[in-house]
Amino acid sequence: MTYVVTDNCIMCKYTDCVEVCPVDCFYEGENTLVIHPDECIDCGVCEPECPADAIRPDTEPAMEEWVEFNRKYSEIWPVITQKKEPLPTAAEMDGVTGKLEKYFSEAPGEGD
């Protein structure tokens, strides 16, 4: 099992999760985060820390596509280990549907 970041992180990018991760498996894009599925130790401490409820275990239905999404971008984006301010759009974008298709950016974030 692994945990993955889903589309509700897009345009929010809360980073509370990265601060509690014991293995530094979060990677930062311009407007979202991802978890490297091979580095995640399945401890689950990140899931309750996400204000947007965007982190899910891969055992939930329809998570296979998110595992591959997280894998792809974690291999090209920089690691992030320290909490940063969320995006200015976080509060208004939390819970908006269709964010992957409408707002996702492949551009990397700054990382640490």
From TrEMBL:
Endpoints of the signal sequence: none
InterPro entries linked: 4Fe4S_Fe-S-bd (IPR017896), 4Fe4S_Fe_S_CS (IPR017900), 7Fe_ferredoxin (IPR000813), Fd_C (IPR022569), FdxA (IPR054829), RnfB_subfamily (IPR050294)
Needed cofactors: [4Fe-4S] cluster; [3Fe-4S] cluster
Keywords noted in UniProt: 3Fe-4S, 4Fe-4S, Electron transport, Iron, Iron-sulfur, Metal-binding, Repeat, Transport
Lineage: superkingdom: Bacteria
The keyword Cytoplasm appears for this protein: no
Pfam families according to UniProt: DUF3470, Fer4
Every 4Fe-4S ferredoxin-type domain range: 1-30, 31-60
NCBIfam families: FdxA_Protbact
Role description: Ferredoxins are iron-sulfur proteins that transfer electrons in a wide variety of metabolic reactions.
Protein's UniProt name: Ferredoxin
Species per Swiss-Prot/TrEMBL record: Paracoccus benzoatiresistens
Lineage: Bacteria, Pseudomonadati, Pseudomonadota, Alphaproteobacteria, Rhodobacterales
